[in-house]
Amino acid sequence: MTSSSTASTNEGAAVREYDVIVIGAGLAGIGMLRRLRDDGFSVVVLEAGGGVGGTWYWNRYPGACCDSASEVYSYSFSDELLQTWSWKTRYPTQPQVLSYLEYVTERFDLNRHIEFNQRVESATFETGDNRWRVRTEAGGVFAARYVLTAVGCLSEPLVPSYEGLDDFAGEVYYTARWPHEEVDLRGKRVAVIGTGSSGIQIIPAIADDVAQLTVFQRTANYAIPARNRPLTTEDEAKIKANYPAIREEARWTPTGNLYRPDEASALTVDPDERRRRYQRDWDEGGFQLLFGGYYDLGSDEEANATVTDFVREKIGSVVADPATREKLVPRDHPIGTKRPPLDEHYFEVFNRENVTLVDLKAEPVVRIAAHGILTAKAEYPLDVIIFATGFDAVTGALNKIDIGTSDGRKLRQEWADGPRTYLGVATAGFPNLFMITGPQSPSVMGTVTISIEQHIEWIGDLLSYARAHDIDLIEATAQAQDAWVSHVQDLIAGALLAKYSSWYLGSNVPGKTRTILTYAGGVGTYRARADEVRDAGYEGFTLTPSHAPAGAGGGR
Ligand code: NA7
Fold first, then answer.
1. Which atom of ligand 1 is nearest to the CA of 444?
2. Is residue 334 part of a domain?
3. What is the pLDDT of residues 311-321, one digit of tens each?
4. pTM of the model
5. CB-based contact 367:374 (threshold 8 Å)
6. Which of 356, 337, 362 is nearest to 222 (CA)?
7. What is the pLDDT of residues 289-301, one digit of tens each?
């Protein structure tokens, strides 16, 4: 299974044949390609964009930065790569990650296997010949035994349907689709709508340049200081000397990072000691405060209140104007029930003369007019509107593709009440389809690179196993899937997250079924379970050998 070939469809279009089609050339797609190419499979990667990078290709807005430290936000498959690449900052900025991915693609000679500007519109499993047929908007037709999705969990942008947007005479930008050419905001009246991670990153990055910045906030958000800083030569040397240990540790922690929750409860420690601990973690920056803190911050309301109150106090201490402060301090949800952003002097921005905060709960948008945004209380004159309104997370990009089988099954229909997967990597009824960081896997509930690599290795092992054992079809059983879906839902039954709204539950998308989209049992625990499934000969999957009589599955 190493060669690709070309046939033609009934409509006459050339069909290009491969062993594997990978959809998406972000971190997951590039890594999967490298693994399968080295394992001797013929692979094509179909990428909607004009270059590699995925998230880091599209989200190139000012201030875009990774919230994971560089030592865990990279590939670990090559020691040479780990040792030769130098990260400049503790948290890699968007230009660094994009350059890194371009470098990896070049260095490992992967570009020749990637087709750019090929947005996949459909993928159909032809039950007669057990092959997937994939069509792109550009008219390409590709066929393969396997389809692997690497479409990203935060890649399908969500844009509010405000009346009048088409009438707006100024410029409109989306953080998730930021232009490649320089955007000149100098001297302009600019609106940013949305105060999640993207809004909280772009707002301080542009506040200096613009004449007037109006921030439209629907929900006040917490943010923890990132305290990003250049990596010194000593920092770099220390990381490079310890890479194997760092990466091995990250693979087994709950968050796929180096944070380890404390064994103590926030409620059993002395309040002064607890405060000192929070202050130390706050000064350190990053997610240590939440994920390296007391174990019950995410499960117990009272324990969580200790850290929520601490952060509220911090926000309050920065913002000078009492009315603005009141709007900025979150009161309607505890910290951690939405994905908490890291920030660089976000709250300080609101002390500037040229920045105004609009509370959309008090004055909702009525419509967008030719020269500004009209709310229930006022009209805000604008030259530029920037949407930082988030994503149809985890399932959005998958459901955008018309995934089905030639006998009429449709993934979108089967997932109408929420995704159903086995291990977040496969779904019953759709053989030989595997999802890298698919729904109900840890994915964006931890350091995504660690979870991506785990799926790459696991899927790579599976495809090699199938080749070695002459297996034609691999399909999750309905029973294994039902058990996994229940398990994933049970895991958040007692969690605070389940009581509030966030994209983890799909509740940011109007009409989307509210259900947990990620596996909350921890990155390390998930890895152990996936290893067990593999070691038991892919328990929960039906493996059908080539030339088996119809209906004879070699379930293992
Ligand atoms: P997020 O975190 O989903 O944030 C989106 C923001 O946009 C959030 O403040 C939303 O308010 C706001 N929003 C969404 N729809 C609207 C409408 N219709 N009107 C006004 N405001 C709206 O997306 P990000 O891109 O910032 O970050 C996504 C992830 O990327 C992040 O979690 C990291 O993992 C990296 P809401 O809170 O829903 O009321």
1. 34
2. yes
3. 999 999 999 99
4. 0.96
5. yes
6. 337
7. 999 999 999 999 9
Ligand 1 pocket, residue 219 CB under 6 Å: yes
Atom 20, ligand 1: which residue's CA is nearest?
218
pLDDT in tens, 256-272: 999 999 889 999 999 99
Q: How far is the CA of 158 from the centre of ligand 1 (A)?
A: 9
Q: Which residues contact 77 (CB under 8 A, 6 or more apart)?
A: 31, 34, 35, 453
Residue with CA closest to ligand 1 atom 31: 197
Name the percent of the chain lying above pLDDT 70. Answer: 97
Average pLDDT, the chain: 95
Same domain, 318 and 464: no
Confidence (pLDDT) at 503: 98
| CATH code for the domain of 23 | 3.50.50.60
Q: Which of 335, 365, 387 is the last residue of a domain?
A: 387
Say if residues 492 and 520 touch (Cβ distance below 8 Å).
yes
Q: How far is the CA of 223 from the centre of ligand 1 (A)?
A: 13
Shared-domain flag, residues 454 and 325: no
Final residue in a domain of this structure, among 387, 420, 453: 387
Assess if residue 553 is contained within a domain: no
Predicted pLDDT at 13 = 72
Query: Ligand 1 pocket, 143 CB below 6 A?
Result: no
Half-sphere exposure of 32 (CA within 13 A, CB side): 34
Does the beta carbon of 430 lie inside 6 Å of ligand 1? no
